[in-house]
């Protein structure tokens, strides 16, 4: 029950890994602020959190809007009086080769959601996290450590997140704030169906073998355990653990593993 009475802002809480983290945090008795754009879904998640024993406030937020991120933090502190944990989870992916991209604004948008969204929330949360000697969690991806075909813009935005949070970790260490970066491999969620295709629209189908990949619940559990222990990082699959070392001695082999994973959808 590491998050009992812990005041947590969770972005991307309306579905997928964020929804699963919301339920695990609620079970532990956290005071949640659930942020995303789909308010109806957030209300459903909030009700399910309350049924599990947590407190839950719905905060409609588009993380690409700096002012909305500032308001998210202000509302949290107005409601609960403090902030203990910020989980930057809201994210969006892509599934297309660069040469097929019709409009480059699609790749800019990925950067705005995945990188700038995390930056805005973290910037406004920082003074409150200093006071509580709190926790920052960033949901990155294996694509934040290595290149993945069909993911140029996504991988770039997740590499940016990691550079940002690894630098910030050093800045805030003496304030007692921990920064935990999570590196999920493929996870079963709606993200792949929502991934942007060549026309900038959601793909509309999931090319992955859903029964062969990690569940959102398992990803949420591992991430929160790492955050509770104030770990630097949570690396989830054997192939990503192995890949970190292999990349030092045989980077071409890691490229081939990434290519095969996309081709096989697992
Ligand atoms: N699934 C995987 O295989 C996988 C692997 C590695 C890393 N990840 C990372 O894990 C995180 C969660 O992904 P998921 O798999 O749970 O995907 P998901 O099911 O598509 O959920 C994404 C969440 O982000 C929110 N979101 C998207 N754009 C937003 C915006 N502009 N403002 C606020 N919220 C926004 C969505 O809510 P609304 O649409 O309601 O705004 C939703 O709650 C992401 O950062 C993703 O990159 C996922």
Short description:
50% of the residues lie in helices and 15% in strands. Helix 4 runs parallel beside helix 5. The longest helix has 28 residues.
What ions, cofactors and ligands are bound? NADP nicotinamide-adenine-dinucleotide phosphate
CATH superfamily: NAD(P)-binding Rossmann-like Domain
CATH topology: Rossmann fold
**What count of helical segments does DSSP give?**
9
Name the helicity range: 40-55%
Structural class: alpha/beta
Q: Quote the distance from N terminus to C terminus.
A: 33 Å
Low-confidence stretches: none
- CA radius of gyration: 18 Å
Taken together, the total number of domains comes to 1
In the sheet with the most strands, the strands line up as: 3-2-1-4-5-6-9
Outline the fold blueprint.
Elements: E1 7-11, H1 16-27, E2 31-36, H2 39-51, E3 55-60, H3 66-80, E4 85-88, H4 105-132, E5 135-139, H5 152-172, E6 178-183, E7 187-188, H6 191-194, E8 214-215, H7 216-228, E9 233-235, H8 238-249, H9 251-264
Parallel strand pairs: 1-2, 1-4, 2-3, 4-5, 5-6, 6-9, 7-8
Helix pairs in contact: 1-2, 1-7, 3-4, 4-5, 8-9
The structure holds NADP nicotinamide-adenine-dinucleotide phosphate.
Structure in words:
- The two termini are 33 Å apart.
- The model has no long low-confidence stretch (mean pLDDT 97).
- This protein has 9 helices and 9 strands.
- It has one domain: Rossmann fold, CATH 3.40.50.720.
- The radius of gyration is 18 Å and the shape is globular.
- Helix content is 50%, strand content 15%.
- Helix 5 links the parallel strand 5 and strand 6.
- Helix 3 packs parallel to helix 4, helix 4 packs parallel to helix 5 and helix 8 packs antiparallel against helix 9.
- The protein is an alpha/beta fold.
- The strands form 2 sheets. Strands 3-2-1-4-5-6-9 form a 7-stranded parallel β-sheet, with helices on both faces. Strands 7-8 form a two-stranded parallel sheet.
- The longest helix has 28 residues.
- It binds NADP nicotinamide-adenine-dinucleotide phosphate (NAP).
- The site of NADP nicotinamide-adenine-dinucleotide phosphate has 31 residues, from helix 1 and helix 6.
């Amino acid at each position: 029950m590491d998050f009992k009475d812990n005041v947590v802002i969770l972005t991307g809480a309306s579905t997928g890994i964020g929804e699963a983290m919301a339920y695990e945090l609620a079970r532990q008795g956290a005071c949640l602020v659930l942020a995303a754009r789909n308010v109806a879904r957030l209300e459903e998640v909030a009700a399910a959190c309350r049924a599990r024993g947590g407190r839950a406030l719905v905060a409609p937020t588009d993380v690409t809007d700096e002012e909305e991120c500032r308001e998210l933090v202000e509302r949290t502190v107005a409601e609960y009086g403090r902030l203990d944990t910020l989980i930057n989870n809201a994210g969006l992916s892509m599934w297309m080769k660069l040469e097929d991209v019709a409009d480059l604004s699609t790749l800019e948008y990925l950067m705005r959601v995945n990188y700038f969204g995390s930056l805005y929330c973290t910037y406004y949360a920082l003074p409150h996290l200093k006071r509580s000697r709190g926790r920052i969690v960033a949901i990155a991806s294996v694509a934040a450590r290595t290149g993945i075909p069909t993911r140029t813009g996504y991988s770039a935005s997740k590499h940016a997140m990691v550079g940002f949070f690894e630098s910030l970790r050093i800045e805030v260490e003496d304030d007692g704030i921990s920064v935990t970066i999570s590196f999920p491999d493929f996870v079963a969620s709606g993200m792949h169906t929502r991934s942007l295709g060549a026309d900038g629209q959601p793909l509309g189908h999931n090319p992955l073998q859903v029964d062969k990949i990690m569940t959102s619940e398992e990803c949420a559990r591992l991430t929160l355990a790492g955050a509770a222990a104030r770990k630097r990082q949570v690396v989830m699959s054997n192939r990503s653990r192995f890949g970190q070392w292999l990349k030092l001695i045989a980077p071409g082999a890691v490229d081939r593993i990434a290519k095969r994973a996309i081709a096989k959808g697992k």
